[in-house]
Write a structure and sequence with these properties.
Oligomer: single chain
Shape: elongated
Helix content: 25-40%
Order of helices and strands: EHEEEEEHEHEHHEHEHEEHEHEHEHEHHH
Distance between the termini: 23 Å
Number of helices: 14
CATH topology of the largest domain: Rossmann fold
CATH class of the largest domain: Alpha Beta
Strand order of the largest sheet: 3-4-2-1-7-8-9-10
Length: about 375
């Protein structure tokens, strides 16, 4: 099968969209499919043996290091020359709209993967455009052959926008990378002894982009919890502000690969603060790392965390709820252990191999069959 992936983001950018595309492309190649990636530049024009067509882009206002794809006739030319069987639209907004238009003109079936709540992000950035953005997202997905959503919250969101042919497709987790065995006792000891009196503390951490939509500033609600040391792993436009807000926290900067897995597993409690997550991959990575999770009772985390069993959920409307849930775990290592056991069982089968194989067999297969019926008619 020949698969063209038009993505709003790709390596060297590190985020949920580019990471998902990387895993999809790698598995497709490993199973003998031909793959082309079309993404905003700048960046390498080859990922392993997968060609990457880089199109014109501009830095996102307020986040100049994040390139946004612009309308470019190169997209149509690249698709026409590659002649894919199916076009995979990864989190289509700007470049994805160009890819969708080109695919429709070429008579190619499309599978769109909804991954970014852009309307929610607009709200977090203080832009009064949530309704307009949501309308645009709905229009795009209504024109795609099939849309895949990562969670029931996303399903309901797009269903309300009139999008049909919706199907759940989650995310895999790299179980060969993330695991409790990655815990580094020396690293944990260094973090835990940072407290002002030098006594061991419970290490509570956030891992992810430091951007407004992630609401990492809510960690200030935990900063004065007794026996807690905050650790922030990641980088982004909010980094300087967060360092000022959290002078007692440890900031590691962006980590990848084995260093990231070691940091995850060396936490005692993982906290995610954002309310606009369509899925929240870092929750799965924390669960796979054997770390107790506290997450918002909103969006994608509702599918990943069974409250009181595989993690704890806090009420985003209750300003005391996050602090209360974290505090309940600080003095109770047995409760943390019980949560991690159930969480490890939950992610045990969530491999990228299974997820991408399902993508090909179930979803690519369905749109190809649909296209064949239309062609015969």
């Amino acid at each position: 099968m020949r698969v063209a992936i038009v993505s709003e983001s790709f390596l060297p950018q590190v985020n949920g969209v580019s990471n998902t595309v990387r895993h999809v492309a790698d598995r497709l190649r490993a199973t003998g499919h031909d793959v082309l990636v079309i993404a905003p530049g700048p960046g390498p024009d080859l990922h392993r043996d997968v060609p990457v067509v880089r199109v014109r882009s501009v830095g996102l206002p307020g986040y100049r290091s994040f390139p946004v794809g612009l309308p470019d006739p190169l997209v149509h030319r690249a698709l026409a020359e590659f002649a894919p069987d199916v076009v995979h639209l990864a989190s289509p907004i700007m470049l994805g709209a160009v890819g969708l238009r080109a695919a429709r003109r070429l008579g190619l079936p499309t599978v769109a993967v909804y991954q970014t709540d852009v309307g929610g992000f607009a709200r977090q950035y203080g832009l009064h455009a949530e309704a307009a953005v949501s309308g645009w997202v709905g229009r795009l997905h209504r024109r795609c052959t099939r849309t895949l959503v990562p969670s029931m919250a996303s399903y309901r969101q797009l269903d309300a926008l009139g999008v049909d042919d919706l199907h759940l497709w989650g995310r895999g987790v790299s179980l060969d990378l993330f695991g409790p065995e990655r815990r580094d006792t020396d690293l944990h000891r260094r973090w835990a002894a940072v407290g002002p009196d030098g006594t061991a503390t419970v290490v509570v951490g956030y891992v992810g982009r430091l951007a407004p939509e992630k609401q990492v500033h809510r960690l200030t609600e935990l900063a004065d919890l007794p026996q807690v040391q905050l650790v922030v792993v990641g980088d982004g436009p909010e980094s300087s502000r967060l360092r000022r807000l959290l002078p007692g926290a440890v900031f590691t900067g962006q980590l990848q690969g084995a260093e990231l897995a070691r940091a995850f597993a060396s936490l005692d409690v993982f906290v995610h603060t954002g309310e606009s997550e369509t899925f929240c991959q870092t929750i799965q990575e924390a669960q796979a790392s054997g770390v107790a999770v506290v997450a918002p009772a909103a969006g994608g985390p509702l599918d990943l965390v069974q409250h009181g069993r595989s993690g704890l959920l806090f009420d985003v409307a209750d300003r005391a709820s996050l602090r209360r849930q974290v505090a309940s775990l600080v003095d109770d290592p047995e409760a943390r252990s019980a949560l991690t056991r159930a969480a490890l069982a939950r992610v045990a089968g969530q491999t990228w191999t299974r997820l991408v194989d399902d993508l090909v067999r179930v979803h690519y297969g369905a749109v190809l069959e649909h296209a064949a019926v239309d062609h015969a008619a």
